[in-house]
């Protein structure tokens, strides 16, 4: 019998991939499935970005690059982050990684071990908890509450810090709730963290450019007092519809940058070169496609929220960011996971049960509105019919 380390008995998964596989299997049997499950833009990567990758291949960029990424791209990331957050960033602190998830993996691996604690949002992206469990650290959920607009509460978050806390994971705009933490709460949190200098912060801002109703995204990068222990997670997947390219970036404080670089050298060497040239074109080229995508998500957001609230037993807050709706389904009488499963199997609508995002996810389902308005309307109609006809 092969014996692996205990972490592999604890590591979890992202159920959105299992739902995607099931939805694809049902569709291949001829079923008409509407997929509101997976969190990826339904748009193609803009043409000028694709062309930049093709040109890079034609120009012979076929080899390894520096482990932290090509310098022009790190410079472009530094300039972009500086423009969006006002923080001065050196390209020496930028690391290009194969997808946003890899920053999460690296940061949690860097801080988690038995005897330590890591704070993470619940409900939240499932990989946070999975990776924390893998390291043997104690996962400490930070409750993200509907009555608080699905924002972090600074007071509640700070109350969970102990001498054993090594890392605090923040995510705004958030998956799965679409919640955006307002400036006042972030300022309180940053001020409170001054009393806990032993706690590093991983700020997952992958949806940072997707906010609505004039809601500002407040980046943790804007706060000088925590820059020496802040890891920023961001990337191209959502903003530029590039989930399949596996391209992300992180900003690391001086004290951690070399450790992150060494992890890259050990694990993935570098990100594939043409994708890096594509990322450069994305940052330095026209941003019209990004604005158009966000405007389209905004239109669909209104359709999905209005449609959900019209269904008996469902209530849905208007999400302020990302491209997810997280309706409360408790009054339907269903538990979230059985409802998600029945909607897929019986009504042909793929959604994710809230418990896949944490204990506080019970009573909710997640719908991604990264699908056409026509499909969203068809899905809402099927959901309404299913709930009306199924006791
Ligand atoms: N962080 C959050 C909150 C996400 O929702 C996702 C993807 O769904 C990621 C990170 C990972 O992004 P990537 O596809 O770039 O690895």
Automatic annotation (TrEMBL):
Example of a GO MF term: L-aspartate:2-oxoglutarate aminotransferase activity
Membrane-crossing segments per the record: none
Keywords recorded for this protein, A-Z: Aminotransferase, Pyridoxal phosphate, Transferase
Cofactor annotation: pyridoxal 5'-phosphate
Catalytic activity entry: L-aspartate + 2-oxoglutarate = oxaloacetate + L-glutamate
Gene3D superfamilies, A to Z: Aspartate Aminotransferase, domain 1 (3.90.1150.10), Type I PLP-dependent aspartate aminotransferase-like (Major domain) (3.40.640.10)
A Pfam family it matches: Aminotran_1_2
Cross-referenced InterPro entries: Aminotransferase_I/II_large, AspAT/PAT-like, PyrdxlP-dep_Trfase, PyrdxlP-dep_Trfase_major, PyrdxlP-dep_Trfase_small
Keyword Transferase assigned: yes
Domain Aminotransferase class I/classII large, first and last residues per copy: 32-381
GO biological process: amino acid metabolic process
Protein name: aspartate transaminase
Native organism: Stappia albiluteola
Family: Belongs to the class-I pyridoxal-phosphate-dependent aminotransferase family.
Known EC number: 2.6.1.1
